[in-house]
Amino acid sequence: MTPPLKLVRRGLHDTTEILAAELALAQPGTEMPAWNELEWRLATAAAVAHGISPLLCRFSTWQRPAWRRFLVEQRGHVAQRHERIATLLRQIDAEARAASLPLMALKGAALHALGLYAAGDRPMADIDLLVDDAHADATANLLASLGYEASFTQWKHRVFKPAGMAPVTGLGEHRDTPVNIELHTRIHERLPVATVDITAQVRTRDASPGINPYPSMGALMSHLLLHAAGNICGRSLRLIHLNDIALLATRMTPSDWEPLWSGGAPWWALPPLRLVARYYRDAVPGVVLARLERDCPLLLRAFAHRQTLTRLSCSNLWLDALPGLEWTRSPRDAVRYLKNRLRPTQESVKERADMVRTQAWLQGQDWVTLGHRRRLLTWLTRPVPRMDTLYVVRKALEHGTPLAG
Prior knowledge:
Beta Polymerase, domain 2; six-stranded mixed sheet; two-stranded antiparallel ribbon; 8 strands; 8% strand; globular
């Protein structure tokens, strides 16, 4: 039985912000919170939702037995799954070399390759690969030879899943969860309707057959920041995204930041870096933030200064009716955004149908199958909880001994 949503909402906010401080400050000896049983369960939900359970296993000093057991279990699952992913990446690399296909492994795989994370530190939901348009179909055939089949296609990528494997349901990471592969031909985000494309900055020129690294740490940082910006815009940011950026930022020299401006003013980079600076002290150079302040539109700049992790993530229990409106940079874009919210495009309708078909947390949920007008009317009359948040909260409440009452 789910507790009253007002308790869940407050508990998610409090536990998320405390967990963020515990991880970001990484100061041994932090006093263990005096949480009740429900709050500890919500803390496990927040840790799972933000992808930080394995890191908390390393850095959190709280010695509550059930908490430690959960973190140790999660780290073990992530470590075993990492070995599967590493083996799969080696197979893809070998097959791509043999087929003369140049690829790039993105985000989490690249961070591991740089040594920023050890095996078991960071969950990876899937493998992201960047390929040139001319090689996309050949790469899809390569994946098919490794036992993968097309699952669905969205404007950002094509998703492939292991044939015959079913998703694993439960709380958090599991070693047997299928490793999906997302195939990208562009690195771009809609913020929220205008598309920002940084493919030219990110792609390795004269790439060799096989898996290639990013051309520079600045290129990787550009991708991490744009990805985080897209998640902020959609209210789906995770603490692990901020942790990625903070770890990479501490490795970068002043010249390493320059690729961020190689494609023009990166007006979209300030909000994620402001959040990193809020939770990770001294990770982001002040001169970088000052320069980005000049690039960022006034409304978005004001928005960036007052936001918290909870407000921009699934830790905020209520759905936002107009997520990302503050990212529009012209009246025309704002009108276009509002029109799309009132009458979704056919592309949006298809994406929603693909999500309902493929995502376990949306199965059997009446809200997601309602007509758009009914959902709009509901938004106008009462707060609507997020389905992804309720899913992980319910799994946390079911985990271990059930709560009384």
